[in-house]
Amino acid sequence: MTDDERKPHRVEEDRSEGFGERLLGVLLDRAHEMAPQLIAPLIAEEIASIGGRDVSILLQDYEQLLLVPLPGKRLVVGDPEPVDDSPAGEAFLHRRTVEVPLDGAVRVYLPLLDGSDQVGVMIVTLDDIDDDERRLLRRLAGLVADMIVTKDAYTDQFFVARRRAPMDVAAEIQWSLLPPLSMIVPQVEVAGILEPAYNVAGDSFDYALNDDVLHVAMIDAMGHGLDAATMATVAIGAYRHARRADTELAQIYAFMDQAIGEQFGPDHFVTAQMMCLDITTGQLQWVNAGHPAPLLIRDRAVLDRLESPTTLPVGFGGEQPHVSERTLRRGDRLLCFTDGLIEEHQPGGEEFGEEQLIEWTNQILREHTPLRAVARKLSHTLKRERGGVTSDDATVFLIEWRGGEAGHLARLE
Questions:
Q1: Beta partners for 296?
Q2: Quick check: is 76 in a domain?
Q3: Is 326 helix (H, G, I), strand (E, B) or coil?
Q4: How many structural domains is the chain composed of?
Q5: Host H or E run for residue 96
Q6: What is the DSSP code string of 346-413?
Q7: Which of 260, 291, 298, 295 lies closest to 274, judged by CA?
Q8: Are residues 193 and 326 in the same domain?
Q9: What are phi and psi of 344, to 5 degrees?
Q10: What is the DSSP string of 261-304?
Q11: Which domain holds residue 193?
Q12: What CATH code is carried by the domain that includes residue 270?
């Protein structure tokens, strides 16, 4: 047998660059060193190559009420569109492409998804559209979202576009501290919202998905303004430090307690709730440090309060906390909130109260399904029912556990 006969036969593969690959590749090749203000004209140029025109990019405002246009050369800058009751809002909330006929053409609204977090919406007009163009536009929108999130760290342009009212310093600190407001993987989804968006000070939340465990913390620092924002920053920083050291929940509390006590003294405190959820089994563990108990939602209605022994708020030197446990069912949701949501009352009136919170939650769950839509609607509805008054921070954070496996996503089909 000759040497040539011993060698395995090599099948030649077609590695030529197709149109779609070339389009996305050019965008990637140029984007690495591109200044943020040049992203818009590059996107418009690429979309023009497939016959698209009148490109707009809308970003979510901080109150989650509007989708506001991003200014930029070659972009169409129109009026903000409401998140509710608009084609752009439908694409944004439901994470799907929406097509609207327009004078012999079609206006296409594409959600901008960074991972699973909704960044905004890209809008483009084409004379007509087929499945190949739909696929290409979806992928292009995903790449645009990633570019916006990456370049956001280098500029104030995106922040300024999203800001619809003056924002105080404490709120700017808090917004810079937050993780993405939503995350979706096959086994679990989370969504949060803070109010008042432009004056929030002491409320914050944090989460991380490490292997099969979702870690969540929700805090409420005492007071208002910069003092509260500073305490919240230290509390979240201490939480992240302890979590990343693979520390148990009880010890995470102790570390946070020590950090707040040493930095601010015995007259300052932070209420807190820390959770760990195994996303494969639904096993939930949590520690409550003076925080309102979460609500367990099952079959689109509030089923129970997750009552548990509580320890003193962080900073008061409480004893080692009790770690509570519960096994969730697939489809269960947890509603976590801060006391500003239920303690608001008009002068001489009664507190809004937890019973009203439960009643409105049940009503909204009957009308809305997507988790982020529920979080938004719940926060905005409760603010309206409290007379539009928010004298204290009021934060909502929702978790939905679905279980199952996701290994198929790591395989090329």
A1: 304, 334
A2: yes
A3: strand
A4: 2
A5: none
A6: -TTS---HHHHHHHHHHHHHHH--SHHHHHHHHHHHHHHHTTT--SS-EEEEEEEE-----GGGGS--
A7: 291
A8: yes
A9: -65, 140
A10: HHHH-TT--EEEEEEEEETTT-EEEEEEESPPPPEEEETTEEEE
A11: 168-409
A12: 3.60.40.10
Residue 19 contacts residue 133 (beta carbons within 8 Å): no
| 239-290 per-position pLDDT tens digit | 999 999 999 999 999 999 999 999 998 889 999 999 999 999 999 999 999 9
Mark which of 126, 160, 194 sits at the end of a domain: 160
Instruction: Tell me, yes or no, whether 156 and 172 share the same domain.
Output: no
Structure letter (DSSP) for residue 39? H
Residue 321: φ, ψ to 5°: -75, 155
Judge if the upstream peptide bond of residue 41 is cis by omega within 30 degrees of 0: no
Tokens of 132: 């190949």
Question: What CATH number did the domain enclosing 144 receive?
Answer: 3.30.450.40
Q: Is 379 left (phi over 0), alpha (psi -120 to 50) or beta?
A: alpha
274 neighbors 251 (Cβ within 8 angstroms): no
Q: Kindly report the number of other CB atoms within 10 A of residue 152's CB atom.
A: 17
Note whether 127 and 42 are same-domain residues: yes
- Where a domain ends, among 141, 160, 179? 160
In three-state secondary structure terms, 253 is helix
The amino acid present at 188, given as its one-letter code, is V
Q: Which amino acid is located at 5 in the chain? A: E
pLDDT in tens, 316-364: 988 889 999 999 999 999 999 998 878 776 555 677 788 888 999 999 9
Confirm whether 14 is domain-assigned.
no
C-alpha–C-alpha distance, residues 127 and 53, integer Å: 9
Q: Is the pTM of this model over 0.90?
A: no
How far apart, in Å, do the first and last CA atoms of the chain sit? 37
Which tokens belong to 93?
Answer: 């909330």
Q: What φ, ψ does residue 15 adopt, rounded to 5°?
A: -110, 20
Report residue 271 as tokens. 């209420």
**Residue 287 one-letter amino acid:** V
Mark whether 156 and 173 lie in a shared domain: no
Tokens of 49: 């190559």
